[in-house]
Amino acid sequence: MTLKVRFILAVVAILGISSGALIIYTSELQNRLVIGQAEQQARMLAKQVLLTRQWVADHQGLFLVQSDTARPNAFLHEPVMTTASGLVLVKRNPAMVTRELSEYAARSGMGWFRVTSLRPVNPANGPDTFEEASLQDFQEGRIERIAVDRTTAGRVLRYAAPLITEPSCLTCHSEHGYQPGDIRGALSITIPIGWADAFIQRNNITILILGGCSILAAAAVMLFLFNRLVTRPVEQLVRAMAAFPEQSLPPLPLPNRPDELGQLAAGFTALCRRLSTSQQALAVAGEKGYHAEKLAALGQLTAGIAHEINNPLAGMLNCVTSMQKEPDNVDLQKRYLALLHKGLRRIEQTMRQLLNYGRIEPLRIHQVDIDTVILDCLELLGHRLRNIVVDLDLRFNGLCCIDSEAIKQIVMNITLNAIQAMPEGGRLAIASREEDQSVVLTIADSGMGMSDDILDRIFDPFFTTKEVGEGTGLGLAVTLAMVQRLNGRIDVRSRPDEGAVFTVTLPVDRHCLNGGSHPATPPEDNETDPAR
User: Fold this and answer.
1) CA distances to 35, 44, 130, 166, 261 from 41, in Å
2) Last residue of a domain, which of 180, 199, 218?
3) pTM of full prediction above 0.90
4) Cα separation of 451 and 444, whole Å?
5) Range of the domain at 478
6) Alpha carbons 63 and 89: distance in angstroms, whole number
7) Which CATH number covers residue 445?
8) Does residue 53 sit within a domain?
9) CATH number of the domain bearing residue 44
10) Domain assignment of residue 326, yes or no
11) Does residue 496 have a cis peptide bond before it, meaning omega lies within 30 degrees of 0?
């Protein structure tokens, strides 16, 4: 997951959580406001009903003209009164006034109310569960009780207030044993608040839609700003890093801004310049060191080469001396001329091997017998191997397409390193085999071995454990570079006092043997015209 995606997801998550918290808080706040408003409405309605009841009680009831809708109350002692003119009036006490007003209020949808008691005169005024609990609380001194219930039509707020016996109430309730100040019942009020729930739900949906739009807008803006301010400069830096050091300074266009990315780009440009300068200096030093290593290796070969040349030269001098003493001896001259020719060819072959080893050329892919190349290297190092037992297991047995000089360089450097690890003599094992279209060369010695600290640094340029004058520390570094040029790899195993094993794996190609893309370049003929 890219940094941009993570950043946008984090912003969306934060905004989403914030919007969700806002919706929850707003919904709860609206609910509290609605409940509070309904409570105030219930209290106001209770006071109005109580005042109405007080007014009716103070006037000893309310008399209405008897009609189909105004019938006598069977629970009153004097439910009917007839005037002198014969008009029949029916009496309405506070309870009946309360019930009839409640019916009007219920039809308006604003709420309804009624009078209830634990000892109702009218069984229809018996309490429900909420009212019974409220009446019990009022006996303990509570002045009101509020609850929210759910019905099939939605939520309703239930409100109950105690009915205190007033002196004017004793006209009707003295026979029931009430005294002034007694709680004879409760006024129960129900306020519907289902409409508020629908309103809150609509508000929540609106806030959710606005929050979603805000999140999308914020994400789009953040995506645009992130692409412009972060992604594009970072991509420029990545392209510049990928192009360096192949592309000369200054590298690809970099952000030039007075911010952190601008400072990073400036720092990267300065780093590129320092690296370029260091690489140039290292290249010069490496080239010098490479030549120094070649010269050091050639110097180590000088003693053996001198021996290889001095032996035939001594014999040739003896032949020349004998021929000078007997200039007329034709048989002697013929025999010695052949020996002179053989000695000169041996010297020529030795010098050719030396020149081939010291030559610096680009890779030349041609047909090579790797086992023969290994034998040539051992012949060149013959004088260094007098105290060393050499075990050969050369089983590549065939031609392949590879650079013979590179193979010589690799074998000579590793073998010289092994010889120097066995100053008192030892055993050297060299093996070759074909494995997975690759040639595997193994060179093992029984020398002093290496610790892990040294093993980690043996391929570092100029690192050496030899005495001053015995090496430059570039032999194995040059070997690693040559192996890498051939797209191969080199592995080393070693422990102190247990010798070392170098394993070189090089891919080989037999394509040039069939006239492929790498034309065959025949190996140089050892038979060279002496006059050349």
Assistant:
1) 10, 5, 19, 25, 63
2) 199
3) no
4) 16
5) 364-522
6) 6
7) 3.30.565.10
8) yes
9) 3.30.450.20
10) no
11) no
Complete DSSP assignment for 83-133: -TT--EEEEE-HHHHHHHHHHHHHHHTS-EEEEE-SS-SSGGG---HHHHH
Residue-wise pLDDT for 173-204, tens only, equals: 555 556 676 777 888 888 888 777 788 888 88
Distance CA 438, CA 435 (A): 5
Q: How confident is the model at residue 523 (pLDDT cuts 50, 70, 90)?
A: very low
Residue 244 C-alpha from the chain's centroid? 26
Token representation of residue 382: 């013959």
Count of beta carbons in the 10 Å neighbourhood of residue 165 = 18
Last residue of a domain, one of 184, 199, 214: 199
Could you give the CA distance from residue 416 to residue 301 in angstroms, rounded to a whole number?
A: 10
422 domain-assigned = yes
R_g of the chain computed on alpha carbons = 57
Stated length of the chain: 532
> How many independent structural domains does the chain possess?
2
Q: Is residue 478 part of a domain?
A: yes
* Residues in contact with 175: Cβ distance below 8 Å, sequence separation at least 6, in sequence order: none
Task: Tell me the pLDDT tens digit for each residue of 29-72.
Answer: 888 888 888 888 888 888 888 888 778 777 777 777 878 777 77
Inter-residue contact 169 to 178 (CB < 8 Å): yes
Over residues 91-127, the pLDDT tens digits come to 777 777 777 777 777 777 677 888 888 877 778 778 8
Which helix (H) or strand (E) segment is 485 a member of? helix 475-485
Cβ atoms within 10 Å, residue 508: 19
Per-residue pLDDT, 139? 84
